[in-house]
Amino acid sequence: MSRYDEEARYDRPKRRTRPRTKDRPSYDDAAEAFVITRDRGRYTCWVDGTDGREVTAMKARQLGRTGVIVGDRVKLDGDASGAEGTLARIVEVVPRTTLLRRSADDDDPVERPLVANADQLVIVVAVANPEPRTGLIDRFLVAAYDAGMRPLLCLTKTDLADPDPLLSIYRPLGVESVATHQGGDLSALHEQLQDRTSVLVGHSGVGKSTLVNGIIPGADRATGIVNVVTGRGRHTSTNTVVLRLPGGGWLIDTPGIRSFGLAHVDPDKLIHAFPDLADLAEDCPRGCTHAADAPDCALDDAVAEGRADADRVASFRRLLASRAAGS
Length: 327
Hints:
The protein is of the alpha/beta class and 327 residues long. It has nine helices and 13 strands. The strands form three sheets. It has a six-stranded mixed beta sheet with strand order 10-9-8-11-13-12. A five-stranded mixed barrel has the order 1-2-3-5-4. Strand 8, helix 2 and strand 9 (150-156) form a beta-alpha-beta unit. Helix 2 packs across helix 9 (310-322). The longest helix is centred in the middle third of the chain and has 14 residues, at 134-147.
């Protein structure tokens, strides 16, 4: 045996490591908070209670790839006093009740979470300047139904055009609406927002920031104008922010959106947002898409026999078609 073979028999000393433990820290006493803004890895959170306060936090390493978004309910460890210069850690994300999502486009299967735990989607639409885009409105409705959120149409600039033609398109769906104009009474809208967590979405230039400033004194959201050449608004809100409503509730303002991909939405799930149609569709053949060209669809039989409203079925199918059409 060579000298080298003799030396190979000696094992290297083992690296000393601390024994792993199955015990994990408990955060039962951690402060629960609500994420209201996110900026470059820092989260501003609102801690409820008699001394409600804003706390700056960062995501704990143990959360790994777990995403934290605006609207999340989280648990904070460390200094959650909110004092200047302090930094807490987000150690847990409470299970979400709703999740508003979109994809970059209809060919992108990767969903992008926008807001968590909101119960109402306020679709802000100008009846003129810029002209309403029903395709985008339909997509917002699909996203609301997919997320389990209540949709509300908020029509702005009603002093420039009659809102009824646009409202008539959505009446068969039973979507509630409010009408506003600059400098007008916002009490009807405020009533719909009271004690809810609402997300404002809409095309750039429709007046979302003007609404926010009218509802919440001191919000100071930047407002812009519509380009007279393109008919499009300029992005004035560049980040998603949560604002407290006077009297109770939260209002989440989002940047203006010009496209809203729905690649993440399962078309089979959409019909369940319409219980009356879902019951009728139980008689459809397996694999039925419920589209207008679907063979032997039970919705067609129900319309022919007077058991379903033709306008409502047509409106549902328009939403279904928006899943596969451009915005």
